[in-house]
């Protein structure tokens, strides 16, 4: 049985010292650390994909068109076809041994590593778990479990280095909605985006240095591919674009490179609007066709764990675009996943945000 399928460690409930004998028992207080990622379908079959895509694409933070326009198009047109193509893409990367998506496998591994560090430092005073914004395990179910286990304080940590309304904000929305269901609402804190955290930047740099050292021929250009959002979001005040640009700049400075060696691009465009540019799939082709670049590496700093957008879109579709345009060597640098330097960075951020909540 997987550790995350087991019941939380039991802590004996006791009646308050000065309370009446029939007072409900209360468990000793502890702090919950709840990390959150985007989500995953339960399977790659049509109905699992349809349920997942319907929840995801019905989120007003993700697609903010009027419901009376969007929902008929989504339910009657898009969701009649897209579950088949998305399901095929998921099937190509599915973890068949565990019967789950790579994102779920990696998030479990990350959570286990964070839990080990937190319990080594704080013992049984903390409880560490994870949830997904879409699909399972749901945010609501995990908040409920933490409250039942005596968590009077919860630190909510969306695993997105960069803030965007369609990622960080919607994860926070779901967390706040879960709190609204609790009779005794725990005190809550939200972890800020960590796009400029020195330990995170250093972990990224180390992963790139390892990939370059292992390459028979060093890549000529590193492409930092971030998940895209509609261009108008920037004009409406979303800081995502600027935070991505800063991560690339800090990474370049940490690596000691000049500007010609690293590029910022955006992937995963959806719908008719203009999205943040340059588009990764077009930029890698342009590098080969116009600049004569034959060897590139691609990393995805906005993703804390490998998923469909990295394992399928980058490592298959974007690779194909580069090679079709004349590129010869395409190196995909995996996300930080459960790399020890990444886990150390995340735990450092968690400890900063726990200040005052636990005994030193």
Concise account of the structure shown:
The chain has 360 residues and is α/β, with parallel strands linked by helices. It is built from eleven helices and eight strands.
Q: Outline the low-pLDDT stretches.
A: none
Radius of gyration: 22 Å
Order of helices and strands: EHHHEHEHEHEHHEHEHEH
Largest sheet: 4 strands, parallel
Q: Which sequence of strands runs across the widest sheet?
A: 2-1-3-4
The total strand number stands at 8
The structure class reads alpha/beta
Judging from the principal axes of the Cα atoms, what is the shape? globular
Q: How many angstroms does the end-to-end distance come to?
A: 34 Å
Beta-strand percent range: 15-25%
* Average pLDDT over all residues: 93
What helical percentage do the residues reach?
A: 40-55%
Query: Count of helical segments?
Result: 11
Characterize the structure shown.
This protein is α/β, with parallel strands linked by helices. The protein is 46% helix and 15% strand. The protein has eleven helices and eight strands. The chain has helices at residues 46-57, 67-93, 102-122, 139-148, 165-179, 198-214, 231-235, 240-255, 280-290, 308-324, 340-353; strands at 30-40, 126-135, 151-158, 187-190, 221-227, 262-267, 295-299, 329-332. The strands form two sheets. It has a four-stranded parallel sheet, with helices on both faces. A four-stranded parallel sheet has the order 6-5-7-8, sandwiched between helices. Helix 3 (102-122) packs across helix 11 (340-353), helix 4 (139-148) packs across helix 5 (165-179) and helix 6 (198-214) crosses helix 8. The longest helix is centred in the first third of the chain and has 27 residues, at 67-93. The protein is globular and about 80 Å long. The model has no long low-confidence stretch (mean pLDDT 93).
């Amino acid at each position: 049985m997987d550790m995350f399928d087991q019941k939380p460690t039991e802590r004996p409930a006791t009646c308050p010292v000065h309370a009446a004998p029939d007072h409900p028992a209360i468990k000793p207080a502890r702090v919950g650390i709840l990390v959150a990622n985007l989500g995953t379908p339960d399977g790659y079959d049509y109905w699992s994909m349809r349920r997942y895509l319907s929840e995801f694409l019905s989120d007003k933070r993700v697609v903010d068109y009027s419901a009376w326009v969007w929902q008929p198009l989504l339910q009657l047109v898009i969701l009649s076809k897209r579950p088949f193509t998305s399901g095929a893409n998921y099937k190509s990367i599915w973890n068949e041994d565990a019967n789950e998506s790579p994102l779920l496998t990696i998030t479990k591994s990350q959570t286990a590593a964070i839990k080990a560090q937190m319990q080594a430092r704080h013992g049984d005073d903390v409880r560490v778990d994870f949830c997904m914004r879409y699909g399972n395990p749901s945010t609501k179910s995990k908040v409920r479990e933490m409250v039942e286990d005596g968590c009077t304080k919860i630190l909510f940590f969306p695993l997105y280095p960069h803030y965007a309304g369609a990622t960080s904000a919607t994860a926070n929305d779901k967390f706040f909605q879960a709190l609204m269901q609790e009779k005794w609402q725990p005190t809550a804190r939200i972890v800020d985006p960590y796009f400029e955290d020195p330990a995170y930047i250093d972990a990224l740099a180390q992963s790139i240095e390892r990939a370059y050292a292992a390459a028979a021929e060093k890549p000529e250009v590193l492409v930092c591919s971030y998940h895209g959002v509609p261009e108008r979001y920037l004009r409406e005040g979303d800081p995502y674009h600027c935070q991505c640009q800063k991560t690339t700049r800090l990474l370049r400075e940490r690596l000691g490179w000049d500007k010609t060696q690293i590029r910022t691009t955006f992937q995963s465009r959806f719908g008719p609007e203009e999205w943040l540019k340059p588009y990764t799939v077009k930029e890698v082709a342009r590098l080969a066709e116009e600049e004569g670049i034959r060897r590139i590496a691609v990393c995805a700093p906005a993703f804390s764990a490998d998923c469909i957008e990295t394992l399928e879109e980058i490592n298959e579709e974007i690779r194909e675009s580069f090679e079709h345009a004349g590129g010869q060597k395409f190196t995909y640098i995996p996300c930080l996943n459960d790399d020890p330097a990444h886990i150390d960075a995340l735990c450092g951020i968690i400890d900063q945000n726990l200040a005052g909540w636990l005994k030193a």
